[in-house]
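Could you please consider the sequence and fold appended to this message?
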Amino acid sequence: MTASTVTRPQSSTTAGTDPVRASTGLDFEGCYRALQARDARFDGQFFATVRTTGIYCRPSCPAQTPRPENVAFVATAAGAQAGGFRACRRCLPDAVPGSPRWNLNKDLSSRAMRLIADGVIEREGVGGLAGRLGYSTRHLTRVLSTELGAGPLALARAHRATSARILIQCTDLPMSDIAFAAGFTSVRQYNDTIREVFGLTPRALRSLRRANSRSDIDTPTAASAATGRGERSSAITLRLAYREPFDTSWFGWYLAAHSVDGVERYRPDTDRQWIHQRVLTLPHGPALAETTPGEGFLRVRLQHLDLRDLSAAVNRVRRLFDLDADVVAATDALSTDPALRRVVGVAPGVRVPGSIDGGESLIRTMIGQQISVAAARRHVTRLVDALGEPTGWPSAAADDGGDDSAGLWQQFPTAAAIAEHGSTILTGPARRISAIVGAAQAIAEHSVEPHMGVDASDLHAQLLALPGVGPWTADYVTMQVTGDPDVLLRHDLVVRHAARDLAIDLDDTAQWAPWRSYASMHLWRHRLIPAGASTPPSTTADTTT
């Protein structure tokens, strides 16, 4: 039993601090109550291993609850697999939201998990992961093994197994192609891992794809062959689960106000509330993600995807929509403040929009300083038109039967392109243009690295050191890129106006910790969405931040 496994305490009267609970944040009695209640809110926050059956499950598994003496709890699926347990075929414990702990905590293991979910180990190895985090490989392995019950290779293996299961059940690709697309180095390694994790051969696992209603798959689709070797899939449709509730109306408002032509498109939809399309720049090339709300999940259709980038694409969409958040915990905490209670009660499922790409978030935020969102969108669109790289795919307007002259989908310009040519494209005060170009240069030279694995306080300091970046920009970008749930946008004009309306002192918000990012979004929503509004705006929304 590893140090990160929580078993039933031998005695409830034992004095002192439980070192296991201190390192993992898991409490046996609390975890077991969630297991007994089959509480889906805790799916992905921990996993239950059952000694008598040799399987591990999500807390909401519909199977009979095992006796407490036969159960232990672990923080990661990799920890369960390292203990010799296989995934439950009934509840599919990998088809769940991720743990909110990886954003809530700022420790090394949490930051590592964000990067592992993005496929960094498959692309750069353990050394690359350690380098991004600023530690030696040996120290990183020791910390992850102690705190999560598995080292970086085991954690990446569990992640590859999940990617492989999705491809097995979502596509009709040959198994050999799935093996390389999921990141395995050989078909034999792939077969062995699937058998060990799921207790089935890959072909037997595929045969179950229509039998499990708890799956994250949608209708299986055909895909191009040999995608693991660089070719691209036609399309894959996934259901990305989240913890209820989810205020999709608020997210529609946000997407409508910020969508930039060419890179993304938002449109209202009578049947599905809204549709959001977005070009993703991924390690092996671009893909197009189309997202629509569902009941308990977002449906995401990925087109033009090199399947080696599946995990990165899923991770970035999840981060954009804050799908791993525990919004109930945030709502409960913020509702204790009388001044916020009514605002939070109106929209308990408000989430914090995340970042698809850290460099893009910084550039777009700097462009939007001290101007309206609509004006910022026009400036960014001009930049994309001039410096974006065309994908060769018809634009949304052409897809809908519109004018083919509307152009092609484009990738957001690279930092290097903005650094070289931005001064001739951007308009406005010379000082602002110089600051944006300087920030792009810093990103291109890696002197500033706005990515999901960086410590939030370190990124905030790096941003403030850039000319032209003030507290508002540093706060907003840090919140979006790292997913830090405790950033108060105290310098934001909309937040300040909302606080004034509600007689809130923004210098006295300690009681909101660690959920001040969510408090900021509630204040935004209170100020920006008219009372009684039930539908998102058109993309002409002109709000100021």
Confidence is low (pLDDT under 50) at residues 10-23, 219-228, 401-405, 535-545. The first strand starts at residue 6 and ends at 7. The chain has four domains: 23-94, 105-210, 233-324, 327-394+409-528.
